[in-house]
Design brief:
mainly alpha
Length: 183
């Protein structure tokens, strides 16, 4: 199924506008068209940018940069604008709801191949893990298992990776163990 960018925007406007607005604490004083188009364009850029991290996670070398990103990313995955883009990606005011990014990823994967090996969630998580490893100052031996479905946006994912809860660390609650033992 080949879905055009315009069709994705139409679907987002019809199905997701209210949910998008609910993700923000302030009223977004813009039309539905402006909001959805802004989100779609930002997501397309972000997914293209994050693609480099998915490739690194898979151990693949970036052989060819798409023409739309050639001014941003060179064959090593970086250039002078790279750090500026990273800074902008993690700014609070630039956060895009992850459910939208996942939806766009699903449409992209359907468009690219019908027999895609990885799901949109797996691919997106691989991209976000690569981004986390690029940004983190810590050298962790074992990374927490963060479920991207529990994260509202990219910054929330980075927070969960840096300050994981017990579930993400694979630790059972001590109180539950004590209660079941004495209960």
């Amino acid at each position: 199924m080949n879905v055009s960018f315009e069709r994705i925007v139409e679907i987002m406007k019809k199905d997701d506008e209210a949910r998008i607005r609910a993700c923000y604490h302030k009223f977004l004083d813009m039309s539905a068209d402006a909001l959805v188009w802004m989100m779609a364009v930002d997501m397309a850029f972000l997914l293209e940018f994050l693609q480099v991290y998915a490739m690194k996670e898979e151990g693949r070398v970036l052989e060819k940069v798409t023409s739309s990103m050639s001014h941003v990313v060179d064959v090593t995955g970086k250039n002078l604008s790279h750090m500026t883009i990273l800074r902008d990606v993690v700014m609070v005011e630039n956060q895009i709801p992850l459910f939208l990014i996942r939806t766009m990823m699903e449409h992209q994967l359907r468009k690219l191949t019908s027999g895609q090996v990885k799901s949109a969630d797996e691919t997106l998580k691989m991209m976000l893990m690569g981004l986390y490893q690029e940004l983190t100052p810590f050298d962790e031996q074992q990374l927490p298992d963060v479920d991207i479905n529990d994260c509202d946006h990219l910054l929330d994912f980075l927070y969960h990776m840096t300050v994981p809860n017990n579930k993400e660390l694979g630790i059972m609650e001590v109180l539950e163990i004590i209660y079941s033992f004495y209960g």
